[in-house]
Amino acid sequence: MNLSSTCRKLHNIYFDVSPRTILHLAVASSRTFFRPHPHFLAAAMVRQASDWALLSHANTEILRQALRRGIHTLLDLCVSKAGLTMNDIRHLHACRFSLINPVSDMIDACAGPRWLSTPNFWQGGVSAPATIFLAPTRALFQIVIYGELFASSMDAFLHPRLSLPRFDHEFRMEYIKYCIPDRACESYYPWDGCDGLTIYHICRPAQ
């Protein structure tokens, strides 16, 4: 985006770059420009993967298997089915400052490190101090991904007469079970090293 702003010729060149190329460039630099990785880019593309999955039962099952392998595999599926335009990149950049950072700060104050820094935290400084543990920005993107992934299901619920395709409750739970790490998981810390392992993997009976 910065390079395309340096002169008219480069602007015209990058204006014609395919969404697939822009997407792969974004993924390659995601740990620098699209943090938290992989949640930021997954949130940006998962609606496209969701729409693709609803085209057929086979596609739905591919998405289900991706969810069961965690957030990194969900991103891989998004990369294979989606694209990003320069306007998408600009929109994401603007959202970082207008929406993502302010809401993350609110979550931080309610249940993140800033909340944990409350004076006398464990001695009555807050109510129920041991009930919540999270990384604020990651938590925000987990909510955003859920909303984007299942937006079509909400549309179907709001407009039942249209008989729109939707994901059922059990399918939506796959995202909760496999893509949102739990504090009790082996991989919960450090957060940046989380590999998608969830409490469901640990507690379910051995096959």
Question: What is the strand and helix layout of this fold?
Answer:
Elements: H1 8-15, H2 19-28, H3 30-33, H4 39-53, H5 57-68, H6 71-81, H7 86-111, H8 113-116, H9 136-149, H10 151-158, H11 169-179, H12 199-203
Commentary on this structure:
This protein has about 210 residues and is mainly alpha-helical. Helix content is about 60%, strand content about 0%. It is built from 12 helices and no strands. It has helices spanning about 10-15, 20-30, 30-35, 40-55, 55-70, 70-80, 85-110, 115, 135-150, 150-160, 170-180, 200-205. Helix 4 crosses helix 6, helix 4 runs parallel beside helix 9 (about 135-150) and helix 7 (about 85-110) packs across helix 9 (about 135-150). Residues about 185-205 have low confidence and may be disordered.
Structural class category: mainly alpha
Write down the overall mean pLDDT. 81
Rounded Rg: 19 Å
**What is the end-to-end distance?**
49 Å
SS field, number of helical segments: 12
| Oligomeric state of the chains in view | single chain
Helix content: 55-70%
Beta-strand content: under 5%
Q: Which runs of at least 5 residues are low in confidence (pLDDT < 50)?
A: 187-207
Report the sheet with the most strands, covering strand number, pairing sense and barrel closure. Answer: none
- The overall strand count is 0
Label the overall shape: globular
Question: Can you write the helix and strand succession as a string?
Answer: HHHHHHHHHHHH
Task: From the structure above, extract its key features.
single chain; mainly alpha; disordered C terminus
